[in-house]
Amino acid sequence: MDKQTHFGFKTVDESEKAGKVAEVFHSVAKKYDVMNDLMSGGLHRVWKHFTLNTAGVKPGDKVLDIAGGTGDLSRGWVQRVGKTGEVWLTDINSSMLTVGRDRLLDEGIMLPVALADGEKLPFPDNYFNLVSVAFGLRNMTHKDAALKEMHRVLKPGGKLLVLEFSKVWKPLSPFYDLYSFKALPIMGKLVANDAESYQYLAESIRMHPDQETLKQMMLEAGFGKVDYHNLSAGVVALHKGYKF
Ligand SMILES: C[S@@+](CC[C@H](N)C(=O)[O-])C[C@H]1O[C@@H](n2cnc3c(N)ncnc32)[C@H](O)[C@@H]1O
What we know:
Rossmann fold, 9 strands, alpha/beta, methyltransferase
């Protein structure tokens, strides 16, 4: 029998998970940006700004955005690396990537875009100065393999940024649960005609490793040093892993 994993609160065969995640993002792609603003009250923009502004990316750097979706971080990286730098927008999902590519093209931003699985990156060793993955790691089946791949493609001295939902400050969790399990699926139904995908979102957040566990996983994947910063009382955390 196939090894088991979780898809939200459901237990599924490992071989099934990527297909189920793909269904979610094919379904939500067109409404993804408007739902992001609505669900987070615009806070996702603040979290992404913090990520971009504390990354230390310089003109000329090479940056890989994994699970980049509709391209919010990629746009910020392009502005920071300048004409001499290189930014790759990648994602496993063609619908998300198409929305991202078209949106950036409409804004006059041209960059290499590639369909790529974070667990098997089509890039050489020691190539990038910075790798980012925002709200993507949670959806991957083999997070340990993905973190090792991210470590592999970084140059020594390079950095991985993982922006992801995390463990919220305990006193807030009853309110956060109420919001996630009651309000989110209703918003999903009304705006994207898809309650199930937003139920998966709430469940997958609860199943994702907490701050300290993810830090440990990054160390085990080979990063020499890992630190993290809680945002919005731990609703989200930004982990930084340094390749020595
Ligand atoms: C919540 S969206 C995040 C998009 C974007 N990074 C952002 O912050 O707005 C999660 C993305 O992860 C992508 N994804 C899921 N599994 C992946 C994998 N194994 N490799 C690469 N991308 C993956 C999905 O297709 C989706 O576009």
